[in-house]
Amino acid sequence: MSGPLIPNETEDGKQKDETGKSEEQGLAKEEDWFSFSAGWIAAGVLFFIAAGILVRRQVKLRRMKKADCRRCFSKLITAVHAAGVLREYSGQEIDFAERLVQAVQGLSREESRKLVGIVNQAAFGAEPPSEEDEAFVKQAYRKIVQRIYRNLSWYRKLQFRLFYVFL
């Protein structure tokens, strides 16, 4: 040391504030508090985004339970397209039932034909479909979407569940 310490200086020559702490210590404490609070804010934002996604998913699933057979079929077509299958089909083609059987493993021709027939009757027929037919379409929708879901990559599975909310 070159000389005696002045009361407001530290050993390395830095100035102290009125509490006796150097400027660097005060700045470090402010930076620590800022990074701590920024971390909590980021965590809170991420929490609310995740909660929003999950609430949206639940709302969409409830709406799907109340949907009629035409809405279920529309959602089925969207799911098939999102999976990259039968993109050239809209569901109104004559051979759609046959192509759906080829694209989805475990789906019988009878189920596929009945599904398309019920939806066509609901869309273009004079009478609405029966409760039994509505239930069949909803059941077929779940079955087909679950079978498609099995063959997807992990990224597409996340899209299916969180973004599109097919399941």
What topology does this entry show?
Layout: H1 23-66, H2 69-82, H3 96-103, H4 109-124, H5 131-150, H6 154-163
Rounded to the nearest angstrom, the distance between the terminal CA atoms is 74 Å
Unreliable parts:
none
Please report the number of helical segments.
6
Give me the Rg, rounded.
31 Å
Largest sheet: none
Beta-strand percent range = under 5%
Kindly report the average pLDDT value: 83
Helix content: 55-70%
- Structural class given helices, strands, pairing? mainly alpha
What would you say this structure looks like, in words?
- Helix content is 67%, strand content 0%.
- The chain is elongated.
- α2 runs parallel beside α5, α3 (96-103) crosses α4 and α4 (109-124) crosses α5 (131-150).
- By secondary structure, the protein is an all-alpha fold.
- The termini are far apart.
- The mean pLDDT is 83.
Keywords for this entry:
167 residues, elongated, mainly alpha
Describe what is shown at a glance.
The chain is built from 6 helices and no strands. 67% of the residues lie in helices and 0% in strands. It starts with 22 loop residues before the first helix and ends with a helix.
